[in-house]
Amino acid sequence: MKLIFPGSFDPFTKGHESVARRALEFCDEMVIAVGYNGQKKNTGLFSVEDRVKMISEFYHDEPRIKVIAYSTLTTDVAKKMGCTHILRGVRTVIDFEYERQLADVNRHLTGIETILLFNEPAMAHITSTTVRELLIFGKDVKDFLPDGFPELKLKT
């Protein structure tokens, strides 16, 4: 089975790493797909290129993971990459309801199924939004990033 794990990953957190690691237990290949809106100039704290580079560096010794950037529908890039399933992480009931709606639409349009993995309870509070805000205010975020992840540095 080949999965696509889409997200903005701005930045990639321990929660993302947990979902990816656990999915590797049952999939053969995974595409971590960094999504962005091509219509907007600056859509994140880190550039899409930087996000792809950091995640690729982190997974440099995992041949089953490929990291790409995309600006189309997730189902379109999934089909293009030969993925049979979409992987998503869920922290809360609100996340679940949102992901269920997306999964229903994606299945209806393309037949691609979505696999939801619940975040580990110890990581349920970690969000990219929180990490970005802490970075902006100069706080140390290493506890929210995977062990061994490249150091996050804001461009000034």
List the helices and strands and how they pair.
Blueprint lengths: L1 E6 L6 H10 L5 E7 L12 H11 L6 E6 L3 H8 L3 E6 L2 H18 L2 E6 L9 H9 L20
Parallel strand pairs: 1-2, 1-4, 2-3, 4-5
Description:
This protein is globular. Helix 4 (93-110) links the parallel strand 4 and strand 5. The model has no long low-confidence stretch (mean pLDDT 93). With 156 residues, it is of the alpha/beta class. The chain has 5 helices and 5 strands; from the N terminus they run βαβαβαβαβα. It has a 5-stranded parallel sheet, with helices on both faces.
Brief overview, please?
The chain is α/β, with parallel strands linked by helices and about 160 residues long. It has helices spanning about 15-25, 50-60, 75-80, 95-110, 130-135, and strands spanning about 1-5, 30-35, 65-70, 85-90, 115-120. Strands 3-2-1-4-5 form a five-stranded parallel sheet, with helices on both faces.
Based on helices, strands and strand pairing, what is the structural class?
alpha/beta
Cα distance spanning the termini: 42 Å
Rg computed from alpha carbons, rounded to a whole number of angstroms: 15 Å
Shape: globular
Largest sheet: 5 strands, parallel
Spatial order of strands in the largest sheet: 3-2-1-4-5
User: Helical region count?
Assistant: 5
The helix/strand order is EHEHEHEHEH
User: Helical amount among residues, as a percent range?
Assistant: 25-40%
Strand content: 15-25%
Which ranges are low-confidence, i.e. pLDDT below 50, for 5 or more consecutive residues? none
The chain-level mean pLDDT equals: 93
